[in-house]
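Example record

One chain of 242 residues, shown exactly as stored in the release files.
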Amino acid sequence: MWKKKIYIKGNLSPFALSRTKIDLFIDCRKCFYNEIVRGIKRPQGPPMALNNAVIYNIKNEFQDYRELDKRHEILSNLGKDFVFAKNTELNDWKNVFKGIRYIHKNTNLELFGTIDELWFNKKEQTYSVVSIKATSKKEELNLEDIPSNYWRQLSFYNYLLKKNNFKVSNLGYIIYCNAIKNTKKFESKLMFNTNLFSNILQFDWIEEKLSEIFEILQGHNHPPPSRNCKYCEYVNLTNLKI
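Predicted structure tokens for this chain:
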């Protein structure tokens, strides 16, 4: 599958780079280079339709509470100072075709990402970025079960908000819905346990990775694959010329 827009050195227009592409770079630089510079994308697996449906419904529920100015139970657990943010830009930030954006001056990369949810602390006058995830595991979810890239995602969104001159808390939140498997009757319903996790976000990796990305995009050499990249391993096993 070929990507319509690829990175061209010397182009004066900012090049749009999403949070998912930065994750791709962290996962495998060769796969990143193939997609961004050569237009060759990794094979994609089937869409996670059920997970996405759960997340979609939660987002809509929060939006209903926001519009009605009602207090949601999940915010009540954090205290009276937390409310749903009501920025005029929020709808754009949630839109996958727009998102929140910032042009990084040193690299001319237009960084962007799509925010799931945003909360506001009235006492501290700070915003908190929120990510919504869904899964189905027999075990109860704990903070240690959350993949590091989920917190990295929140750190990147927090970074974008700061660059857009918003005062943001360094504490990020993840709402993790876990489908219960041991229900006796299905009755066309799934039951969930909803977990709220928080963590202090780290930002020191962002500028470093952006510099590394820019160096590879400006270079002439094809970067080597990651040792753990199953896609590059498959290419090597099949002798494909990519």
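Notes: The CA atoms of residues 152 and 209 lie 12 Å apart.
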